[in-house]
Specification:
The chain is an alpha/beta fold. It has a single domain (2-282), classed as TIM Barrel. The chain contains 10 helices and 8 strands. The protein has helices spanning 14-23, 41-52, 78-97, 130-145, 162-167, 179-188, 197-207, 211-219, 247-251, 268-282; strands at residues 2-5, 28-31, 55-58, 102-106, 152-156, 192-196, 224-227, 259-262. Strands 3-2-1-8-7-6-5-4 form an 8-stranded parallel beta sheet. β2 (28-31), α2 (41-52) and β3 (55-58) form a beta-alpha-beta unit. α1 runs parallel beside α2 (41-52) and α7 crosses α8 (211-219). The termini are close together.
Length: 283
Amino acid sequence: MIFVSTSCIKNKLIKSSIEDLAINGFKNIELSGGTELYDDFEDDLFNLKEKYSLNYRCHNYFPPPKKHFVLNLASLDNASFNNSFEHLKRVISLSKKLDSYKFGFHAGFYIDIRVNEIGKKISRNKLFDKEKSLQRFCEAFTKLKKIEPEVTLFIENNVFSSTNAATYEGKNPFMMTSFLEYKALKEKIDFSLLLDVAHLKVSSNSLGLDWENELTKMVVESNYIHISDNDGFHDLNNMLTKKSNFLSILSEHDNSNKDFTLEVYDGMESIKKSYDILSEVVS
């Protein structure tokens, strides 16, 4: 099954992004960040779901909070951690209400990132004690799993851009950016992998790893995959082309039980073309 993320459509209100996708024929919609909170947004979700026969999935920073913050379940700052934990509790409960039983969010950060830096070049900040940060993440994740056991929780691999690699001079402030880090986290907690192919491409390049080898190992570990393309240096959310080098790797695997989400920010026509290309590969 292929979903399209609402983050592909730049609207202030989630209802507008959903309707833009629905009238263009997309029935499987992943609700993601980039919109603003408003009263009765849940009513809109249910009304649009019924009107267009939609299938939803929540992701990471949706629904948006009243006051924006950076979601970081590994933060050692109590305010940041508590905001993150309470947000995730709300999304898990909303997922069940929407009959959506997969929910994925990003692995933690070993720093606190400013709201205006998310997805961009980040400032040089002092790193947390990684062991304490990782322990806090794992303990919180274990508690979250118990809230609605029917909702499977997925952790998404982070992106470590070349710009941020230069800023941190070889120190990696992001959790789970490689296959080895995925395996190490898997030994600590029982979780499902949300594999972001574009994140892995960038992170592998920054870490000096063979990204196609990393993808080959990680794709068999996941049944939920985020898809877009980039230049290997930054997470650009570019459209797919038939030359996108990860498509041949995906085609070598059984994709019948996998869900994919397109995160393409190049406009509606690019979303449609990317959808068609991906459909040929994973069907």
